[in-house]
Every structure is written in structure tokens, then in C-alpha cells.
Design brief:
The complex is a heterotrimer. Chain A is of the alpha/beta class. Chain A has 3 domains: about 150 residues, FAD/NAD(P)-binding domain (3-Layer(bba) Sandwich); about 120 residues, FAD/NAD(P)-binding domain, CATH 3.50.50; about 50 residues. In chain A, the strands form 6 sheets. In chain A, strands 1, 2, 3, 4, 5, 6 and 19 form a 7-stranded mixed beta sheet that branches. In chain A, strands 8-15-9-10-11 form a 5-stranded parallel beta sheet. In chain A, helix 1 packs parallel to helix 7, helix 2 packs parallel to helix 3 and helix 4 packs antiparallel against helix 8. Chain B is mainly beta. In chain B, a hairpin with a 2-residue loop joins strand 1 and strand 2. By secondary structure, chain C is of the alpha/beta class. Chain C has 2 domains: about 170 residues, FAD/NAD(P)-binding domain, CATH 3.50.50.60; about 140 residues, D-Amino Acid Oxidase, subunit A, domain 2 (D-Amino Acid Oxidase, Chain A, domain 2, 2-Layer Sandwich), CATH 3.30.9. The radius of gyration of chain C is 20 Å and the shape is globular. Classes of the chains: A alpha/beta, B mainly beta, C alpha/beta. Chains A and B meet through strand 8 and helix 2 of A and strand 4 of B.
Chain lengths: ~375, ~60, ~350
């Protein structure tokens, strides 16, 4: 088993900033094919330092005290110190049609376009909440998309005071907006329905589009921190001024400690604390309008993996009960999508996390002590595909 | 330029593209970051592979659910 | 006063509620947790005839109930295929009553992914699988039973005509004088691989693991779910109280599974969990009167889902002083009283 002084989980801005200052033997682990995380996808502004072992396309499915990380495909990896820079995922929110084809996460569509998805002259509506929508619009526009509009659910009256409170962020916002000349930015606006290429807005307007990019903010990836027993507060990992969690030797940087974006990730990755007020103000400025909670209809899916509707979920007061009776949250994404939704819609408490954190070939659970031989190409042993 | 076959159809792929970038429409919303599992496809006979975290390789065979 | 209070709202408690309510009794269940969320949810829901009166009778009762169950209960008459690795096990298979014997060729036609070199097998066509948490809730709904979220610490303080203790492995804490020991099990479930496995697959050596008293054992037991997912078992451990996954035993359990079904090595596991069986020294449940107004329906080891329906019939007959559908003596708690 390989031993390191430091293991950094996540090769986004926080992880790369941490890698730059980490000493001793260091391993940097990420499940994507290239470093950079979501924001720098494939074009990191901090290169992977030469002294660091970088393991891309590597999934951590268990973390044990001591610390041992169980990974696919590299098997177990030991490290004396962990830096969790696991980033965040998008919050999706259900409305009629949200599971139709051609609906993407906002960051999701951005990532796909950066990864080679053709978007030229395609009509795209970007809808949801938060500063990410503008960044996504800028990327898509640059790639030749026809952005029909950006629908931001928060009211202008909350966004402007937020920007004025953080003048350092203003040039960035203005530059983004300038790059989106001619693209309408509608505040207090959201999609109430998407069907057959037509999006209906809450003001009654309909738009014919090829793609709908939707994201209502970010949800921190805290699963590994939870497995290790780190304390969370309101869903975020608690850290001290050095970035250490409540578990000695486990550090956390970036979005898992509070959604704050690039500057926060870079600071925390380098071991510096970041202004907590910004995180709070950002969350308040883009807090979800309760009207969004009523968009899903009885037949709207809540759990896409197991095709469970809102009507099927509604009788249950606890997630555990709903899981047992309807399978909501029991599918391949393991509740990553529907967990944050059901928490908001039904008040269900997210359940504790258990290994494996991601679907993992069974042999990795059976050979915990020795790494299985990595595979390549077609395997005669692969279970047959269905359909 | 690498070529892949998706559901029997040949597709030219840009270098460094992920498989997910080339798929026909799948039920959304796709996160493209390995979380939602909505882009899982069969690649070279292996089911349940995350298209968004797989780079295309010349000659790859992809089947969508 | 409620006629009957049932402590424990798992499948056994729910089946008792259903049976007694059918006879006109008013029933209340007490459980600190969600109905059907203990061993009922942790187990496989394999409805298996193990060549004894209670399991055979109970599997028949499940068949009678099946047409009424909601589709989410996923009753599926997939049968059990008992795998014979060698000639000695094939002899054992031949001794099983009411099965269809398979030679090696027929075995691989039935289940092509089993490892080469096996001798054959025996298919018990009456066996089935059910998703027990949904069946539990359905039984409770049919019984119109009141379910109260409450932890019971003393059975003697409950006011009712009859009190049924149906607390599974928790019985060891409530009634420590009984010879019931929690026996931990692990399970894993895979992604969907429709058609990969057609029957519940069990090695004949499973009975040695289940009925033996070894402190720690594993045996091959794989169940196809109607979704195409595969449940992989089984493990048995005494003297463990924590619910955490025990990686070495999971390793052993999966390694055993790969030996018989190599294709599993590359199947994605999406979840693993543990649960506790209520094990008695003779591996026969405790069904019947204990003392005062207290009755037992517990100690079902790995067969709680299967024998819940038969257990309820036997116990209801005793409480209601009606003729018992099976001779009740083998199940009576008094066999352990000195």
C-alpha cells in the first residue's frame, strides 16, 4: 500500500492551492480526467506541482481513520494528513419537465461544452440562481451559443446591495456582464415548466430553446468528511483558523466549508482563513424563493434514479420511511440529487453516509488490503450490458 | 481526430472530449461532474460507465440506455 | 383497553397484527423506529422452504397472499437454485423433497454465469422473493393497526389482553433470560444488471452456516431483484454489537460470492449494510405463551420474513384459543425453561 505524508482530495482551485504549499510526499486525487476542478476544468491556473503524485480518474469510496483511503482504480492509499478539497455540486430543483432530455445543470452544460459538446447557434436558456449562471452564460456565448436569456430567481433588490457590499467583486461582475452584451438578465424570474423545447417562465412568457441549463446554487460535497466523523454545521464542514476539521489531521478547504467561490477556495487551500461574512451574504442574496417549492406537480419526479414522483414521496415524514417504501434516494446517485431536494421540499433529514460512497466494482470491496490489478479496455469478465 | 461509435453511429470527436459531450439527449438534468449518474453508458461492453468522466478514445464503442 | 399490544413493528409483528385483526381483535404496535426498518429491511426477503413444516407452510401462505400485495412489494416467484459443487453435495440435493434436479449441463443453461466445474443443482420452484418493508406496511394497513413510536423498556408494564414480543434481535435486551443472541449479517446490493441471474442462488453449504454455531461464517447467497439489482450475502457473526460494516467479513463474504459467480467481481456495488438476526440455540423460533399476558413471536434467525405469516397463524390460534394450523409444541418458549 502506498503511504504519503499528505493526501489532497480534489484537484480544483482549493486542492491545487493546497498542493502548491504542501510539503513531504503528496498525492493529489481527483475523479475527473484532468486537473482544474469544475471552474478550471482542464485548464488549471495553478499547475500540478512537480513533487506531487497526481491520480486523475480516481474515486475515493471509503475513508478510514489513520488514514486509509479506498480508491478505484488504485486500491488503498495511506496518508498521515488529509486535505479535503472536494468542492460542490449543483443544486437542482424540480419543476415539471426538469428531467426531460436537453435539461442540464448550468455548470453541467458549461462542463460539457468545455469537454467538446457542440453548442454553436443552439438556443440556450440559463435558469436558476447565483453568480455561476453568468459565468456559464459567458462560456457558452464564447462557444457560439445563442443565449436567449438568464433567469435569476433572486430579486434585484437583494443582488445589488450584495454587490455593493463587496466592491472587490464588482469589476469581475461588470466584466462578466460586459461579455454578455445583448443577453437579457431577468431577476425574480424562473422556469415553471419545460416541455418539448418550450420553457415557460413565471411571468407567463414562453421561450423556444434547444437547451435548458438549470442550477439553483451549490451543495457542498461533504461525504468523505462525514465518513471520517468531521463535525458539520448546517451542512458545512466546521474548521478552525488553520482549516483543520474537528478530526485531528483532517483539513478542509473551499466549498465544503461554505459556498464562497474561487477566492475563498484559493485562500483556504493555501491555509488562510476566509471572510465568513461573504459566505453568509452570498447565501442570503441568492436564497431560494419559497414559490419554487410549489413548482413540482404530483407527477413530477423527485428521484430520477428510481423514478419516484412527488405524490409518492408526500405521505412520508422521514426519508428513511420513504426510502423503504418508495426507494426514493436508493439509486445509483445515492441520494446526491434528491437528498438536497427532499430536505427542502419535505423537511427530510439527510441520512448518514456509508461506504461505498460511489458505485464501485465489487472486487474493490473484497480486496481491501491489496490493490486490484488495474484493467484496460474490454474485459471478458465484464457483466453484460442490458438493452 | 478520434472516432467513436455511439449506438452504431460513427461520430468524430474533438481531442480531449469526454464521451458525455457526444451523447444523444438523455434524461436531464445532467451534472457532468460524476455525481448525478445520469450519463452512465455502456463503453466497450462495460455497463454503467460515467460518460462525463471518460475521455474519448479512437475506436470506442458506446451504447446509451 | 386494546385487545393486543405488539412490541416490534417488523414483518413478524405486522403479520401478527394482520392475523389478529382478521379475527376481530383491536391491535396496537409499539416500536421506537419506523415499521419494517430493522431486520425486516436489512434482510433479503427470500421466501424459502427449508424442508420444515413452518417454512413450507409459510411459503404457501405467501403464495396465497401474493395476489393481494401491492406491486411495490415486488413478490417474485423466481425459485431457489441450490448449487451442488460436487458429487457429495449432489447427493444432498437429491435428498431435498419437491425440487427439480439439474445436472451440470442444465445448471449452466439455467445460470450461465456460475463458475465452471459445478456438479449440478436443485430448483425449489415454489420459493420466491418479496420486498419486506412494503409487505410490512401493507399488513399493518390491512390490520388497521395503530402504530405508536415508542421504545419499550419493560414488557410487564403494558396493559392489554395479550402482549406479543416481536422484537427480533432486540429480544436479547428486553428478555435477557431467553437464549436469544443477535447474529450480525452483511449484505451488498449492486447496480442493475437485468437478466444476469434468474434464480435466488444458494450454495448447499449455506445450511451449515445458518444452522451451525460457528462464531463467524459466510455462505454464498445471491438474490436477483425485479429491478435487475443483485443482493449479495451472506455472513453470520456472533458477539458483535456495532452496526458498522466489518471490512474483513465483507471481504470474506464477497470473495465467497466471486468463487461461485465470478461475474460479480466486476458488478458495481452501490450500497452495503448490516442487520441482526435473532438466533436461538436450536435455530427454531420462539412462538407462544411465555408468562402472564406475555407471548413471544421472535427468534426467527434468517427466516423472519419467510415464516412471519406462519408464525402469526400459530400464535393467533393460541391467543384466540383456536385449533393451531401446525403442531405448536416445537416452537413453544417453554422448551428453554428449566
Amino acid at each position: 500500500m502506498k503511504h504519503y505524508d499528505v493526501a489532497i482530495l480534489g484537484a480544483g482551485p482549493a486542492g491545487l492551492a493546497a498542493a502548491r504549499v504542501a510539503t513531504g510526499t503528496v498525492v493529489l486525487i481527483d475523479d475527473n480526467p484532468q486537473p482544474g476542478g469544475q471552474i478550471w476544468r482542464g485548464a488549471p491556473q495553478i499547475p500540478v506541482p512537480a513533487h506531487v503524485d497526481f491520480l486523475p480518474q480516481t474515486k475515493v469510496f471509503d475513508a478510514q481513520p489513520g488514514f486509509t483511503l479506498q480508491t478505484v482504480p488504485h486500491g488503498p492509499i495511506r496518508a498521515a494528513k488529509l486535505i479535503l478539497a472536494t468542492g460542490a455540486r449543483e443544486l437542482f430543483f424540480p419543476f415539471p419537465g426538469w428531467t426531460e432530455p436537453n435539461v442540464f445543470g448550468a455548470g453541467g452544460l458549461q462542463a460539457l461544452v468545455k469537454s467538446g459538446k457542440p453548442i454553436q447557434n443552439q438556443r440556450v436558456l440559463i435558469a436558476g440562481s447565483g453568480p455561476l449562471l453568468l459565468a456559464v452564460a459567458a462560456t457558452l456565448k464564447k462557444a457560439g451559443a445563442n443565449i436567449v436569456g438568464i433567469a435569476e430567481q433572486a430579486p434585484l433588490g437583494r443582488i445589488v446591495p450584495f454587490l455593493l457590499r463587496y466592491p472587490a467583486k464588482l469589476p469581475q461582475a461588470i466584466a462578466l456582464r460586459a461579455s454578455l452584451l445583448g443577453v437579457p438578465y431577468w431577476t425574480n424570474t424562473w422556469v415553471t415548466r419545460f416541455s418539448n423545447g418550450t420553457a415557460t417562465l413565471n411571468n407567463g412568457r414562453t421561450l423556444n430553446i434547444d437547451h435548458l441549463a438549470t442550477g439553483f446554487g451549490l451543495v457542498p460535497n461533504t461525504e468523505i468528511a462525514q465518513l471520517l466523523g468531521c463535525r458539520l454545521d448546517d451542512g458545512f464542514v466546521v474548521v478552525d483558523s488553520h482549516g483543520q476539521t474537528t478530526v485531528p489531521g483532517v483539513y478542509c478547504a473551499g466549498e465544503p466549508t461554505g459556498i464562497g467561490g474561487l477566492d475563498k477556495a484559493l485562500a483556504e487551500g493555501a491555509g488562510q482563513p476566509y471572510n465568513g461574512a461573504f459566505v453568509r451574504d452570498l447565501a442570503q442574496a441568492f436564497a431560494l424563493n419559497p414559490a419554487l417549492y410549489d413548482l413540482a406537480e404530483p407527477a413530477t419526479l423527485i428521484c430520477r434514479c428510481e423514478t419516484v414522483t412527488k405524490a409518492e414521496c408526500q405521505p412520508y415524514r422521514e426519508w428513511r420511511d420513504a426510502k423503504l417504501q418508495t426507494r426514493c434516494g436508493m439509486g445509483a446517485c445515492q441520494g446526491r440529487l434528491c437528498g438536497p431536494i427532499t430536505q427542502r421540499l419535505f423537511g427530510w433529514t439527510p441520512s448518514s453516509v456509508r461506504p461505498p460512497l460511489v458505485p464501485v466494482p465489487a472486487r474493490y470491496l473484497a480486496t481491501a488490503q491489496t490493490p486490484p490489478a488495474p484493467e484496460s479496455g474490454r474485459s471478458e469478465n465484464a457483466p453484460p450490458a442490458h438493452r | 481526430m478520434p472516432k467513436i461509435r455511439c449506438n452504431g453511429r460513427e461520430i468524430d470527436a474533438p481531442a480531449n472530449a469526454t464521451v458525455a459531450a457526444l451523447l444523444p439527449p438523455l434524461p436531464g438534468p445532467l451534472c457532468a461532474m460524476g455525481v448525478c449518474m445520469g450519463c452512465r453508458v455502456t463503453i466497450d461492453g462495460r455497463p454503467h460507465q460515467l460518460a462525463c468522466q471518460t475521455l474519448v478514445r479512437d475506436g470506442m464503442e458506446v451504447t446509451t440506455p | 383497553m386494546t385487545d393486543v399490544v405488539i412490541v416490534g413493528a417488523g414483518i413478524v409483528g405486522a403479520a401478527c397484527a394482520y392475523e389478529l385483526a382478521q379475527a376481530g381483535a383491536t391491535v396496537e404496535l409499539l416500536d421506537p423506529n419506523i415499521p419494517g426498518s430493522g431486520a425486516t429491511a436489512a434482510g433479503m426477503g427470500h421466501l424459502v422452504d427449508l424442508d420444515d413444516d413452518l417454512s413450507r407452510y409459510s411459503v404457501n401462505l405467501w403464495h396465497q397472499l401474493a395476489p393481494q400485495l401491492p406491486k411495490q412489494a415486488e413478490f417474485w416467484n423466481c425459485g431457489t437454485l441450490w448449487i451442488a459443487a460436487n458429487d457429495a453435495e449432489m447427493e444432498e440435493a437429491r435428498r431435498k423433497p419437491g425440487v427439480e434436479l439439474l445436472d451440470a449441463k442444465q445448471l449452466y443453461e439455467a445460470e450461465p454465469h456460475l463458475r465452471p466445474g459445478l456438479a449440478g443443482g436443485a430448483v425449489a420452484k415454489g420459493d420466491a422473493v418479496v420486498y419486506a418493508p412494503v409487505a410490512t406496511r401493507w399488513l399493518l394497513e390491512q390490520a388497521k393497526a395503530k402504530v405508536t413510536r415508542r421504545a419499550v423498556t419493560s414488557l410487564d408494564e403494558i396493559q392489554a389482553g395479550a402482549v406479543i414480543c416481536a422484537t427480533g434481535a432486540m429480544t436479547a435486551k428486553l428478555l435477557p433470560e431467553l437464549p436469544i443472541r443477535p447474529r450480525k449479517g452483511h449484505l451488498a446490493i449492486t447496480d442493475r444488471y437485468p437478466g444476469l441471474v434468474q434464480h435466488q442462488l444458494v450454495e448447499l453449504g449455506y445450511m451449515t452456516s445458518a444452522q451451525g454455531e460457528s462464531n463467524e461464517s459466510v455462505a454464498f447467497n445471491v438474490q436477483p431483484r425485479p429491478t435487475g439489482q443483485l443482493l449479495i450475502g451472506s455472513s453470520r457473526q456472533y458477539n458483535v454489537e456495532t452496526t458498522e460494516i466489518d471490512p474483513p467479513i465483507l471481504d470474506r463474504m464477497l470473495t465467497r460470492a466471486f468463487e461461485l459467480l465470478p461475474v460479480l467481481r466486476d458488478c458495481n456495488v452501490i450500497r452495503t449494510w448490516t442487520g441482526f438476526r435473532a438466533s436461538t440455540p436450536d435455530k427454531i423460533p420462539l412462538i407462544g405463551h411465555l408468562r402472564g399476558n406475555l407471548y413471544l413471536a421472535t427468534g426467527h434467525e434468517g427466516l423472519g420474513v419467510t415464516t412471519s405469516l406462519g408464525t402469526a397463524k400459530i400464535l393467533a390460534a393460541e391467543i384466540l384459543r383456536r385449533p393451531s394450523p401446525l403442531p405448536p409444541a416445537p416452537y413453544r418458549p417453554e422448551r428453554f425453561q428449566t
